[in-house]
Design a protein that fits this description.
This protein has 578 residues and is α+β, with helices and mostly antiparallel strands. Among the domains are: 2-56, no CATH class; 332-410; 483-573, no CATH class. It has 22 helices and 16 strands. It has helices spanning 41-51, 59-62, 72-83, 86-90, 96-110, 115-119, 127-131, 138-150, 152-163, 230-239, 257-268, 274-279, 290-298, 331-360, 367-381, 402-410, 428-435, 439-449, 463-486, 511-519, 531-537, 564-573; strands spanning 2-8, 11-24, 27-35, 64-70, 169-178, 201-209, 214-220, 246-249, 282-287, 312-315, 324-329, 387-391, 396-400, 414-419, 542-548, 551-559. The strands form four sheets. An eight-stranded mixed beta sheet has the order 7-6-5-8-9-14-11-10, sandwiched between helices. Helix 3 (72-83) packs parallel to helix 22 and helix 5 packs across helix 19 (463-486). It starts with a strand and ends in a 5-residue tail after the last helix.
Length: 578
């Protein structure tokens, strides 16, 4: 068979001729037997293969496809888990319980669901076959959780050894998650952050390193206050994690005066008492509450005029012995607070004018009823301190308390941080930046509570199962945290955040991150993904199981070849390091 090619302009034509060679008079001659071009290239390829002696069969008669399972997203997560050494983090020796725990962590990251739903979803992807846990039942998964919770102390200690070093920052915050059911051993009514009325909750705290990488999670009774969890976690950080000193970062609602007194006593009498020894070496950073700021302004220590030439100043005060106070002024925050206050005042005055009209027309009488209506209005907009009310049985009047507004306006944009860390250990700017790292813990809370990890609602009854559930979610976020960093160049995440910047001014994204956010594309023109859409796109990498018609029990597998973007995403995961 001979194929000839010729061009006419930009078009290319192929001609397929079936020819034979023969000798005539001692010369080799060729004869065209048929023009195969009209048959099409596919049929011509079959004829060519048959003429070469190859066995040609219809593909459906050659082998069949028994099943196809999404594999790419599983490959990505398991690659990240292997790069992070998660197997040895859970246990040094292989076991079925360890494999089941790894499967639960991966499932929490890929498609979180109940243990019953998980046991029935093993065939939905290659996760179970990759980890060798095919057919694992619901009871086995609960047993794996029990196995995991026994090792939680060791796991947290290993994570802390990896990521927490003496003298470094430690971030800590507390949240809560609501509970479904009435028999959870840790459930109680408390400060409900999930806004689920009538639902009991479990309180839990998360500890991270300075970059927001999770290292420990702890569950508490649902009615446990935030501040009551702190000292126990600090002692655990020292005793279990082997930290002799570190800088604890907490918001003003977390590190209270009681804690500061305990830390101060430990610093003054280190080694003299067991409790003091437990807390010695801990320095901290938190914020001064609003009442404290007003007190510093009223006694003349802090004057707004001081910020005319600088937005950051450091000072000491007798009311805060052994501490350094760093006052900061953010003009953008001041403008935003002033705008909101004006809007809320306007809305409050408009509603109060409606009440005033009703009283004048006689539709609203009785001082008690008038007071209730007025209180509801000013409470709705939280403007009680800025409104003066005059109420009697048949009259109602109101006015703005301009002195109160002016006093609050003078403090707009001003916040004060307090720390026990000496300046040679943590400079003023570093204190501000360290406190601004706290949103990294809040971001972890948002991710864990979202559909990405589904830490809530908690559906477990036993306290150890609740702790195992929280640990699984934390470890899933630990894997995701590293994957997000590895995939920063393909997603909206900033690859090169500012390291040297004005600590007061809002952080700015790098030019490349701004370009990605604006155009929604990468430099090469490919679309910019979020983490979740990039992970979902890997599902098109499928593992197929095939069989031979003449031997149905003899199977073999093929896997979809990754496209260029998928290959790049998988290769980037190989850059993850502990």
């Amino acid at each position: 068979m001979v194929t000839t090619t010729r061009r006419r302009g930009e078009r290319v034509y192929h001609a397929h001729l079936l020819m034979r060679s023969y000798r005539e008079g001692g010369k080799v001659r060729k004869e065209s037997l048929a023009n195969l071009t009209p048959l099409g290239d596919d049929i011509v390829a079959l004829i060519r293969a048959a003429l070469k002696g190859k066995q040609v069969r219809v593909i459906e008669d050659t082998f069949g496809t028994r099943e196809s399972r999404p594999h790419g997203q599983v490959l990505a997560v398991l690659t990240a888990m292997r790069r992070l050494g998660l197997e040895r983090l859970l246990a040094s020796r292989p076991s079925r319980q360890r494999s089941l725990a790894l499967a639960l962590i991966a499932k929490q990251l890929l498609a979180p669901s109940s243990k019953l739903a998980t046991s029935r979803s093993w065939t939905h992807s290659t996760l179970a076959s990759e980890l060798g846990v095919q057919g694992a039942s619901e009871d086995e998964l609960y047993a794996a959780m029990d196995w995991l919770v026994v090792r939680q102390r060791r796991i947290k200690a290993k994570l802390a050894k990896r990521h927490l070093k003496d003298g470094e920052l430690v971030l800590y915050d507390v949240t809560s998650s609501y509970v479904e059911g009435d028999h959870c051993e840790l459930a109680a009514f408390g400060h409900n952050r999930d806004k689920k009325k009538g639902k009991r909750q479990v309180t839990w705290g998360l500890m991270t390193d300075g970059e927001g990488r999770p290292v420990a999670v702890e569950a508490f009774m649902g009615n446990t206050s935030d501040v009551s969890t702190l000292l126990s976690q600090v002692r655990k950080a020292k005793d279990r994690f082997g930290l002799s000193e570190f800088v604890l970062i907490g918001d003003r609602g977390m590190i209270s005066g009681r804690h500061i007194d305990a830390f101060r006593a430990a610093a003054e009498s280190a080694g003299a008492a067991d409790d003091a020894e437990d807390l010695s070496g801990v320095t901290w950073v938190t914020a001064v509450k609003s009442a404290g700021i007003r007190a510093l302004v009223s006694d003349g220590t802090l004057q707004p005029s001081l910020f005319e030439k600088t937005n950051l100043l450091s000072f000491t005060h007798p009311a805060y012995p052994g501490e350094r106070l760093i006052a900061c002024y953010n003009p953008l925050m001041a403008a935003e607070l002033a705008r909101k206050r004006e809007e809320l005042l306007s809305a409050t005055l408009e509603d109060l004018q409606g009440i005033e009209g009703s009283v004048k027309k006689g539709r609203l009488k009785d001082a008690t009823k008038i007071a209730l209506r007025a209180g509801k209005v000013i409470g709705k907009h939280k403007m009680q301190k800025h409104i003066k009310l005059s109420i009697d049985q048949a009259s109602f009047a109101f006015e703005v308390n301009h002195e109160s507004v002016a006093a609050e306006k003078a403090l707009d944009g001003i916040y004060i941080l307090r720390t026990s860390a000496p300046e040679d250990k943590l400079a003023d700017a570093q204190v501000v930046l360290a406190y601004k790292d706290l949103p990294k813990v809040e971001r972890a809370f948002r991710t864990l509570k979202s559909v990405a990890a589904q830490v809530r609602p908690i559906r477990h009854r036993l306290s150890d199962r609740v702790r195992a559930h929280l640990l699984l979610c934390m470890l899933a976020y630990y894997v995701r945290w590293h994957m997000e960093r590895a995939w920063a160049s393909l997603t909206f995440k900033d690859e090169d955040p500012e390291t040297e910047r004005d600590p007061i001014a809002p952080a700015k994204r790098s030019p490349e991150a701004q370009r990605k956010a604006h155009y929604k594309t990468l430099e090469n023109g490919e679309p910019t993904d979020s983490f979740d859409t990039l992970l979902a796109s890997l599902q098109t990498i499928v593992r197929n199981t095939h069989y031979l018609p003449e031997a149905p029990d003899a199977t073999f597998t093929t896997t979809t070849e990754p496209n260029t973007r998928q290959r790049r995403a998988l290769d980037l995961l190989d850059t993850i390091t502990v």
